[in-house]
Here is the input.
Amino acid sequence: MEECGLKALLHAFRWAILCDVNAEIAVKFTPAGSSQPAGSEDVSVHVTGGSVQWMTVLPGRGASREAPLPEFEAQARAPTAAVPTLRVLHVEDSEDDHALVLAHLHRGGLRVDATRVDSLTDFEAALNEPWDAIICDYHLPGFTGLEVLACLRVRGDVLPFVLVSGQIGEDTAVEAMRSGASDYLLKHNLARLAPALERAIEANEARRARLASDRELALSRQRLSELAQHLQTSVESERAAISREIHDDVGGSLTALKFDLAWIERRSADPQVRQRVQTALETVTHAIEASQRIMHNLRPAILDQGLVAALHWMTKRFERRSGVATAFRTSHEVLPPLPAGVALTAYRTAQEALTNIDKHARAGRVTVDLSLAHGVLSLEVADDGVGMSQGALAKARSFGIRGLHERAGTVGGWLELSSSAAAGTTLLLSVPLDGPAADSGQAGASPSATSTDPAAWG
Ligand SMILES: Nc1ncnc2c1ncn2[C@@H]1O[C@H](COP(=O)(O)OP(=O)(O)OP(=O)(O)O)[C@@H](O)[C@H]1O
Ligand SMILES: [Mg+2]
Here is the structure.
């Protein structure tokens, strides 16, 4: 059968199936180049109840031959009233192929309200309306199905997307699937279009639900992290306030008491009283030292001399107390002014890392490296100990390292950990310093005496 005859026949099929009526269609055609007059060969299509039953070809006058239609043999699944209407956006430049796709969807039992677009502009405009699915040709005038997919991705729309093409190579199909297509079909084999579309819609619903729950989870993680960071800042504020109270009230009173006791001691001739006063003076001195220690733990006053001096002091004290050889190295003896809160964050990180080494590492050697390069302040604390056991970071009652992560976040930095039984544990804090620098001229310079915001320390 010549091409024009086939086309005519195809039109008839489409029309018949789309109309879903009992129909008998006679299509006449004349084979190209044939000397026979038009009408010498007839094709009639018998459609009953939406199903194409027979094609009858009448070659020549009076003769008759009947043959079943392989592609349309299957009985149509008539859509029932319960089937919801699907809103389908069809990106297709051929009206005939559009009709063919609709016919297949219809025969697959789907109720479809479809709109055809054939340009990217119309496609983008159509996306402002709600769609249940997109069916897209691959080769389109001036663009391809991949560009349609890219357009969807840029908008962040998540829709079932079935690619339908006359010809599509394996590589292109793989690329399309990678770019978010739900399925792809060849135009000459559309029998599985309806089930493919239904599956794509189902999968897309599951994907949407997963994305929604991922978004929810990310949001709740972000809220939790914000809360933890807020708590870190609040804790430092509270510490600063308590430290100031101890300094002003307790420290001031103890110092006054010490002067009074010394005055009594000088004035008293009674050896028993003098003895008693001596004991009281020792107790007061002890109380003053204790309050200074508590103040230091609450708010490291050593930071007033700068981060480098504070870390120097901390590592020396750690070495003395733990007996573990500890080296401190720094790229700068004097650091440029640091943004608010950075020095305190570095100080607390080193403090927790050294406490952990003391508690868990059984190390023989520790190095603390402070460096400033390419605008990033890095603090690395490394030990040669036993390394972290598996699941160490998941311990329910361990908050030190978790707290350091949150603390790093408060100054726009991050924390990295590496650990092995062979090499020990290394903790690295990195803080980009591109934020506004502290207004004090010295790194780790003291906040004003009345400052309650720990972020201002250093
Ligand atoms: N330097 C280290 N060497 C070996 N194991 C370590 C080291 N640092 C941490 N760990 C392991 O990681 C776990 C978690 O440390 P993290 O500091 O978070 O909590 P913690 O020290 O147990 O308790 P805390 O909440 O008091 O800090 C530790 O319990 C320990 O098992
Ligand atoms: Mg700890």
Notes: The chain has a mean pLDDT of 81. The chain has four domains: 3-72, 85-188, 217-299, 301-456.
